Amino acid sequence: MRITLMMMTFVIVPLVAAAQGRGPQVKRTNPPTLSTPTGYTHVVEVSGPAKTVYISGQIALDKSGNLVGGNDMRGQAEQVFKNLAAALAAAGAKFSDVVKMNTYTTDMAQVQAIRDVRTRHFGSVTPASTLVQVVHLARPELLLEIEVIAVVAAGPAIVPASRD
Questions:
Q1: pLDDT score, position 15
Q2: HSE on the CB side for 71, CA within 13 Å?
Q3: Mind spelling out the 3-state secondary structure of the chain?
Q4: Residue 42: per-residue pLDDT
Q5: Are 119 and 101 in contact (CB under 8 A)?
Q6: Is residue 163 in a domain?
Q7: 151: nearest Cα among 18, 28, 17
Q8: CATH no. for residue 126?
Q9: So what's the pLDDT on residue 2?
Q10: Rounded Cα distance, 17 and 92, in Å
Q11: Domain of 58?
Q12: How many domains does the chain contain in total?
């Protein structure tokens, strides 16, 4: 009995604690039965203890609410990704933690500008992604809106929204 108790204390308890301390495991797959993606991943799976972070659609407004980029898709994309970075950081996440991205644009002909900015921020660690052309966004001068879902190691319980 004594040996069993010692084994539980010195072997099993540390193993369970170590397993609980691991963050989420993210597996990104591009099945050979699907087309080769450009700048995104077809399948993203998350397992293990994780906190899911939902970032609302970000648009090309600066902190003061002023439009950045004017009628230039690349300029607006730069601000959108700057806003995404700030929102992710507020939740303890970064672009490599993003597992899903939805992009809404008013002009698919300018998609390369969006892709160029996206590639700089994601590199080779790309999320599952959807790109859609829409007729309008919330304001007529907006050309682009992007929302993301990220996964990070599980942390504390629910906390109220704050204005930092």
A1: 43
A2: 1
A3: CHHHHHHHHHHHHHHHHHHHHCCCEEEEECCCCCCCCCCCCCEEEEECCEEEEEEEEECCECCCCCECCCCCHHHHHHHHHHHHHHHHHHCCCCHHHEEEEEEEECCHHHHHHHHHHHHHHHCCCCCEEEEEECCCCCCCCCCEEEEEEEEEECCCCCCCCCCC
A4: 87
A5: no
A6: no
A7: 28
A8: 3.30.1330.40
A9: 59
A10: 23
A11: 2-153
A12: 1
Structural domain includes residue 50: yes
The reply to whether 9 falls in a domain is yes
Can you give the pLDDT at residue 162? 65
Pair of tokens at residue 47: 């397992």
Q: What is the pLDDT of residue 108?
A: 98
Q: Mean pLDDT of successive 10-residue segments in the chain (164 residues)?
A: 52 46 82 85 87 94 96 98 95 95 98 97 94 97 98 71 64
pLDDT given for residue 40 in this prediction: 84
Smallest CA-to-CA distance from 45 within 100, 91, 104 is with: 100
Pairing of β 25-29 and β 144-153: unpaired
**Residue 17: phi, psi to the nearest 5?**
-60, -40
Instruction: Assess if residue 126 is contained within a domain.
Output: yes
